[in-house]
Amino acid sequence: MPARRLSVIHSGTMHPEHNMALDEALLASDREPTLRLYGWQPAGLSIGYFQSHDRFTSVPGDHVCVRRTTGGGAIYHEHELTFALIANADVVPHDLDESYATIHAAITATLGDFGVPVHRFGRGATAPRPNHDWCFTQPTCHDLMTDRGKIVGSAQRRVRTPIPRVLHHGSIVLCAPAATPGCGAVDEFVDPASIERELGPALAERIAASLDLRACEGSVQDLDTTATLAAVQSRWDRR
Amino acid sequence: MRPNDRKYLKSHEWCKVDGDTATVGISDYAVEHLSDLVFLDLPEVGTTVTADETFGEIESVKAVSDLYSPLSGEIVEINQELPDDLDTLKSDPWAAGWMIKIKVTGESPNLLDAAAYEEHLKAEG
């Protein structure tokens, strides 16, 4: 059994700003490898770190807008299992391609266990300069797909100081939101309600194993998110 | 062998000092490692930067990464064309792909010469 722990946090559904603040507080900390699994209540519209907010001000729906610290395109978070893997940089493969391949292999295996077949988009079809606003309409080589479309959105943030750390965000779509109706979703194959409780723990076990870690129940109750929450609340319209 | 007329940080930024001014960019290894670059955010002229602290951010289709300054000082020029032509970083990271110019007041104690940077790259794999 691996010696190092993966602290697994089942946060349930949370406000979009608190979701982002918690992930960023974990990134700024020196905590053991952590996998946080969560949902969104109310729905969230998260845009990539460099995206212009004014392209998303008229998106219909009852949602809260946030800017992620990770990159990529916008995601409408409604019926999905979201995860954040936060760890020192030496826990995940140093090479970006390898890190995505490792994490996505764990997701592929997990979804396969629940009867949801997904495949990798493939290297030959990389979109080097995304021209689309939405994450799920612009698959790149690492992305996981169903025959209908992209089913997992992913992005990373890597920092070097005070210690090298990685934040990997992943969004597994359970039911396609109205904003990105063409994306892949779990409900193409199974009723999400029938697997929702088991999917998160199973994913945690797979990700832990892929990183040679031991999944253990963790807590973030003592984590101070005051500074990161203020940062999240102040930067939506920064660009 | 990377150019030996400049120094490097382990985070893959380089600096080339000329008098009291230095040019800063990122190495070919960093560009290759990040692969498909999407956005580059550089500070404004007049901004003060501190050695080993961030001066900008770069995004590829896979990750957002901070850029770290090898030197302390005031930014006196930025490569304004670069954010709109990131292919220059691939084609010429050592000259045309420069990012900022700094009026130098200090340097990082962690600077590596070209040989030491090569050793670091080998260790990093």
What does this structure look like?
The complex is a heterodimer of chains A (239) and B (125). Chain A is an alpha/beta fold and 239 residues long. Chain A has helices at residues 16-28, 96-113, 192-210, 226-234, and strands at 5-14, 34-40, 43-47, 63-67, 75-77, 79-88, 119-120, 144-145, 150-159, 165-175, 214-217. Chain A has a single domain (5-234), classed as BirA Bifunctional Protein, domain 2, CATH 3.30.930.10. In chain A, the strands form 2 sheets. In chain A, strands 7-8-9-10-6-2-1-11 form an 8-stranded mixed sheet, with helices on both faces. In chain A, strand 9 and strand 10 form a beta hairpin. In chain A, helix 1 (16-28) packs across helix 4 and helix 2 (96-113) crosses helix 3 (192-210). The termini of chain A are far apart. The relative contact order of chain A is 0.23. Chain B is α+β, with helices and mostly antiparallel strands. In chain B, the strands form 2 sheets. Chain B has a 6-stranded antiparallel sheet with strand order 1-2-3-9-8-5. The mean pLDDT of chain B is 94. The A-B interface holds A 48-50, 69-72, 94-97, 100, 126-130, 140, 142, 155-161 and B 11, 33-36, 38-39, 41, 52-54, 57, 59-66, 68, 124-125. Strand 9 of chain A pairs parallel with strand 7 (63-68) of chain B, so a sheet runs across the interface.
